[in-house]
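Board notes, transcribed. Complex of a protein with adenosine monophosphate.
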Amino acid sequence: MKKILESIKSYDTIIIHRHVRPDPDAIGSQVGLKEIIQQSFPEKKVFAVGADEPSLTFLAQMDHISDEQYQNALVIICDTANTSRICDQRYNLGKQLIKIDHHPNVDAYGDIQWVDTSASSTSEMIYDFYLQTKEYGLICSDAAARLLYAGIVGDTGRFLYPSTTKKTFLLAAELVTYRFDRSKLYDGMYNISDKLAKLKGYIYQNFNLWDGGLAFVKLTKSVLEEFRIKPTEIGQLVSILGDIEGIVAWVVFIEEEEQIRVRLRSKGPTINELAAKYNGGGHPLASGATVTTWEEADEVINDLQDICQAFKK
Ligand code: AMP
């Protein structure tokens, strides 16, 4: 953390990236860190870059910058395990690269790496970074606290997942003492449109449940068209099968333009090795991958079935 602080202090321009298809932790850690640096060092130019995600603009808007800004810049990547998933591939145009992440460090990129798989979220790490270094003059604003709290809430499934630790609660307890409207934040994160509510009904009606506790649902292009939902809007629905009795691991397939996105979740068996087999990765209990055909999707289901059976034994 000291090394990271020293780097931050020594650069005039700092550009912060995060992963493609961002979630609240990606945006929360990225823009939360930007806010902390900007408040603490107002003379520095600090940018948060990447494609805007319409469903998360209530959290923060991205900065749009030219390639020239990367000259002599410090680049920090938040919440992104591998370089191919970094949103805005200009990340390597800077002078120094720092990785801050809580996923398994399969792709050890960056001049400085701070990877803590015991952290519930990268937002938790960023707030911890602030607490550990505030004696050197760092300032955490209400805006930063709101973003970091959103990231923690998002990645812990509202403090539900086993990744939630005593430390998570302690940091969250401090974050709620800042001034921001928590109810409004929850509305932004968890209110769903009527279209999405109907798709939720479709998922409950149509999921398959196999012996061993495996469940899956296939959201084909035609289903998504019927409900007028874009593949990027489904994030909030991936976890819902976890509340159903007997389901141990599940997968939601989402057909996109050229590929099928595979979103894997588990309440016990490790699934990130399976994700890695299909060009993906992630956490032991929450991973993602991509396949190109429905036959390949069926292979994922069969592999997951083997994993569930082995877990049961
Ligand atoms: P998601 O289903 O997109 O919410 O992803 C769950 C977890 O898996 C997140 O921590 C992602 O960072 C990770 N993940 C998702 N897709 C991929 C992928 N294609 N490659 C590596 N990690 C992924």
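The chain has a mean pLDDT of 97. The longest strand covers residues 249-255.
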